[in-house]
Amino acid sequence: MGCSGRATTASPRSSQQRPTVKSAQVLGRSAPVRLRIPAIGVDTPVMRLGLAPDGSVQVPPITADDRAGWYRHSPTPGQVGPSVILGHVTVGPYGDGVFRHLARLHRGDRIVARLENGTAAVFTISTVRTVAKADFPADDVYGNVDRPELRLITCGGPRTGDEYRDNVIAFATLSATTS
Q: Which CA distances in Å does 59 have to 5, 118, 128?
């Protein structure tokens, strides 16, 4: 996975715009359109990603308006299974990537995935792991699970040229839904 955008900070919501929060319930399929991670200042549109010609998961393009990308062959956020969203840590000549601070997330931090149908899936971080790319835990990331989960992936660790040795993976579970 190549790694390289800019993150914007979330704007506060007024109390009059508060969504109705429901306990965690499985949601129907609806693609993510926005991702917010307040603990690390991420508020980004989400694009759809497929497979690269070599069969690996595509990564978002390296552009000045860096954004996260949802792997469209994974469940959508809130569906049973691991929904996978990727982002860059750096974007070449454009500087920092949207997931530049992913490794700073901690157990209990919240992630909000806004869906096309207007609902949102709220996830809570359970763990963040840094692993060598050579030892990427594909089963842990893409394997079946019996509840809605989220995986956020970027590059990390030592850098050689434009490449990073490791991947940073944040694992989260659905904790609430909003409408």
A: 13, 25, 20
- Token readout for 125 is 């971080």
Alpha helices in the chain (DSSP H): 138-142
Rounded Cα distance, 130 and 167, in Å: 6
- Distance CA(76)–CA(121), nearest Å, equals 10
Pairing of the two strands 148-160 and 21-23: unpaired
Query: Is the predicted pLDDT of residue 36 greater than 90, yes or no?
Result: yes
Phi, psi of 56 (to 5 degrees): -85, 165
Residue 160, beta-bridge partner list: 163
Q: Of 38-47, 54-63, 68-77, 107-116, which gets the smallest average pLDDT?
A: 54-63
pLDDT at residue 83, rounded to an integer: 98
Residue recorded with tokens 């490449």: 163
Q: Measured between alpha carbons, how far is 102 from 37 in angstroms, rounded to an integer?
A: 9
Q: Indicate the length of the chain as a whole number.
A: 179
Nearest CA-CA partner of 108 in 129, 86, 123, 121: 123
Residue ranges per structural domain of the chain: 21-178
- CATH number of this structure's domain 21-178: 2.40.260.10
Q: Are strands 110-115 and 32-37 parallel, antiparallel or unpaired?
A: antiparallel
Q: What is the mean pLDDT of residues 138-146?
A: 95
- Alpha-carbon span 83 to 99, nearest angstrom: 16
